[in-house]
């Protein structure tokens, strides 16, 4: 093989390695998979994962990237040794990442590569990822707003998850909720819900308020937690030591007399959908509380469960992550998901559905 061919091969292999980093950064897994031969193997023993073939590499990469809040990979050229239509080489990488569950860190690693000349050009036939150094110290930075691929998903075109539902849609939802065993009331606005809450909860009740923008914006959270009308559980829990009193915190949050919260979506077929990062508020909704009251803005009404799940991922999670980043320095995540199709215990679950939009 002449020197010009060797130079051309090296340039093409370098371009191949650069294309891999670009496809990873841009989360373009179909393009990334096409950089491998059809029978290629991508091994990451320290993860640990192993993907064989282009489809596994594509699908496996998508599963990994779904966990990212942001990911940055810097690659540095290593050696290349060409032997006819095959070659070997190494690429050195530094990576910085944060996952949606809040874990973050940086690492230095080496890709041990085997390349093959094909009709499509040089392709990876094997890529083995070896981690040399890991630092899991929490990262202080964040993906800036408007950063393209690093952002949370945007709402799909055609779905307006902020507009109040029509009067007909609200009526259908109320009827379906009642048919499914919920007590359902249609109220004009948050102020009406605020007054209704006082009628529904007897004085002296132990009331746990779930973290909710709807409750905060409506003033319901303040009414319950700041006054002496009720035994407010959430302020008490927040002052307890999580290291020594975790069992008591769990019991208080899971089995209050009354649980007041909101939901992420309610369907016209009478189903409530509630997402959570920690899951601490779900037991009370699911049946732990003697009574549960959900205050729901009109923009949370959707036609069906599929749309409800999209609303959780594409709208509520985006806004909640922005709030969590500002408050706690890390994004939120949908680690737990509760779907309430019906209320089997008459009188236990009450939905106060509003004609106005409020909350996430």
What are the main properties of this structure?
360 residues, alpha/beta, 34% helix, elongated
Task: Please sum up the structure shown.
The chain is an alpha/beta fold and 360 residues long. It has helices at 3-25, 29-33, 54-65, 167-179, 190-200, 213-218, 220-226, 233-238, 246-254, 282-288, 305-328; strands at 36-44, 49-52, 68-83, 86-99, 104-118, 121-135, 183-187, 206-209, 231-232, 258-261, 265-267, 272-276, 291-296, 301-302, 336-340, 349-354.
Descriptive overview:
The protein is of the alpha/beta class and 360 residues long. It has helices at 3-25, 29-33, 54-65, 167-179, 190-200, 213-218, 220-226, 233-238, 246-254, 282-288, 305-328; strands spanning 36-44, 49-52, 68-83, 86-99, 104-118, 121-135, 183-187, 206-209, 231-232, 258-261, 265-267, 272-276, 291-296, 301-302, 336-340, 349-354. The strands form 3 sheets. Strands 2-1-6-5-4-3 form a 6-stranded mixed β-sheet. A hairpin with a 4-residue loop joins strand 1 (36-44) and strand 2 (49-52). The longest helix is centred in the C-terminal third of the chain and has 24 residues, at 305-328. It is elongated.
């Amino acid at each position: 093989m002449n020197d010009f061919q060797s130079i051309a091969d090296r340039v093409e292999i370098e371009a191949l390695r650069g294309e891999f980093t670009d496809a990873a950064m841009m989360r373009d897994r179909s393009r990334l998979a096409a950089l491998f031969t059809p029978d290629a193997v991508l091994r990451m023993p320290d993860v640990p994962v192993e993907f064989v073939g282009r489809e596994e590499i594509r699908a496996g990469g998508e599963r990994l990237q779904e966990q990212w809040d942001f990911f940055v990979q810097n690659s540095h050229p290593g050696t290349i040794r060409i032997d006819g239509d095959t070659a070997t080489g190494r690429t050195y990488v530094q990576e910085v990442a944060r996952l949606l569950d809040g874990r973050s860190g940086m690492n230095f690693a080496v890709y041990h590569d085997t390349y093959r000349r094909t009709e499509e050009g040089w392709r990876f036939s094997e890529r083995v990822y070896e981690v040399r150094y890991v630092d899991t110290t929490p990262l202080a930075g964040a993906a800036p707003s408007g950063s393209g691929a690093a952002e949370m998903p945007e709402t799909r075109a055609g779905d307006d998850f902020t507009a109040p539902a029509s009067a007909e849609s609200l009526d259908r939802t109320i009827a379906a909720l009642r048919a499914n065993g919920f007590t359902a009331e249609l109220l004009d606005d948050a102020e009406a819900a605020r007054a209704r809450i006082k009628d529904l909860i007897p004085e002296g009740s132990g009331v746990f308020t779930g973290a909710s923008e709807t409750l905060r914006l409506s003033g319901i959270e303040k009414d319950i937690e700041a006054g002496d009308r009720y035994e407010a559980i959430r302020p008490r829990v927040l002052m307890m030591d999580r290291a020594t009193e975790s069992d008591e915190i769990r019991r208080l949050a899971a089995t209050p007399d009354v649980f007041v919260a909101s939901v992420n979506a309610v369907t016209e077929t009478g189903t409530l959908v509630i997402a959570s990062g920690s899951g601490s508020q779900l037991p009370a909704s699911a049946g732990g509380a003697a009574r549960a009251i959900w205050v729901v803005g009109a923009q949370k009404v959707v036609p069906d469960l599929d749309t409800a799940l999209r609303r959780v991922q594409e709208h509520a999670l985006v806004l909640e992550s922005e709030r969590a980043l500002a408050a706690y320095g890390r994004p939120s995540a949908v680690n737990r998901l509760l779907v309430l199709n019906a209320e089997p215990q008459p009188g236990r679950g009450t939905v106060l559905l509003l004609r106005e939009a409020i909350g996430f």
